[in-house]
């Protein structure tokens, strides 16, 4: 139990015993310790793996290895506000979780040790980590994630929270971490298709988008809702695989396996001003650096460095914490000489593409059936710069994904930050997007003014459409359709389509548009019949609106003539009626909760889960 140091993980105990017997290699542990000691970026990920071995293996580990790990823990820099010249990224949402978990558990393990970077005792670090974790957990519970539905970063957050739940000796913190874990697994259950996590994402990388088998989250999905993969102590995924304390609530397993068609609406994250004000309200009765740092974490957790609401917070934080030399922030160095007012004016004039890093509130629609899934973020910063956001995704059987982007280009060197946006990651310029059930409209307008650090602007949008993976397909001047098994996807284009390669279709122009329709054999007997409907449909620009006229079966309703109109930055209309695109925290058959909710209840056929943040209680029936 929590007061006894958590449940026993037989996987880690067996690993430790094998190391003690000399039948398991320890070289990888020493390599990770060297990486952590060097404070290279992503050291916090290695710290989670090493901590899992140290805490899970306990006294079965060889004494020399235990001592080496403990030395590493007390020498590490555990906080963004611990001044240093290294260039670790400590501030994005997932890094905040890992650094705080590492600090809390290291301090709990070694309460009487002096941590060399700060001079604080382990007990002091435990309390500082606990406070920061409670703030982070509450923000995620009430408002969701800035890195929403990201297979890459959900894996990191889940691993860190699982490690915390497994080994925390603080009952309240353990319960609250379990509650946020529940909500992350709820997100995974809601968006599960053929054993994969399929959704639009706040941050996504090229390979997992195109090849879902490469997703970092696959092992956790399998361990939660299927057959657990092989335990490998060198991976973060295995922290969840090898757990013994946290059990997946029964209702979430039911949701993951549910048949039928489901419409899922969710809201994740906050806008920068909302996040900063929320953090300030949390500290309204106290002042000091800890309160200012929490406001900074609120802004930088969503990568809002230079928005009008956050630039003053950024400049203050960089000056106080000596972060001007951090390679991720070096490009902001010249602004340190300016007042916040002058910095805001300068940034408005420059219009830097780095504003695309910001991850504000996302309102997400997902239409999930046993044969296909369509997921998109509604009206996300249309006409603004993008970065790693994957704004829409269609998923079909056998790991087929179809998505579109406006290819981006940056003159900012990759030695400073990853080379995004790129051809298939993010958007150079974000489109406007609206979805109604199984139909999606996407409008790209590339006519806004150029930005500082922007490379050559590509006057086109394109689709990743892997023809070779489909059973059959057809392509005309302004339409493409394909079938996989009993599932259909069709796309109608505003301008002529060019086939650039066996998996790329592009549409040239500063104004381009796409209408995406998903269906199956329950509605159409063949691809030919489905294609006939698409050929009869029209997609036109009427002033500032993309208008799609077609005979469609929206959701599970019979086919009928419909007009779907996407008005640039003004929303979506279906048959003349406007669609609300501002959602609660959850809105679907199993759970309804407003933004900022203190209580979230998930209800299935014969089980339920009730989470109450105010009382810190988690109950299942």
Keywords:
alpha+beta, ten-stranded antiparallel β-sheet, 621 residues, six-stranded antiparallel β-sheet, 17 helices, 33% helix
Concise synopsis of the structure shown:
This protein has 621 residues and is α+β, with helices and mostly antiparallel strands. The chain folds into three domains: 2-248; 272-353, no CATH class; 359-586, no CATH class. Helix content is 33%, strand content 22%.
Helix tally equals 17
Q: What is the residue-mean pLDDT, rounded to a whole number? A: 95
The proportion of residues forming helix, as a percent range, comes to 25-40%
Main β sheet profile: 10 strands, antiparallel
The tally of structural domains comes to 3
Low-confidence stretches: 1-6
* Largest sheet strand order: 14-15-10-7-6-5-4-3-22-23
Radius of gyration (CA) equals 25 Å
What's the shape?
globular
Strand segment count: 26
Content of β-strand: 15-25%
Span between N and C termini? 21 Å
Task: Please identify the structural class as seen in this structure.
Answer: alpha+beta
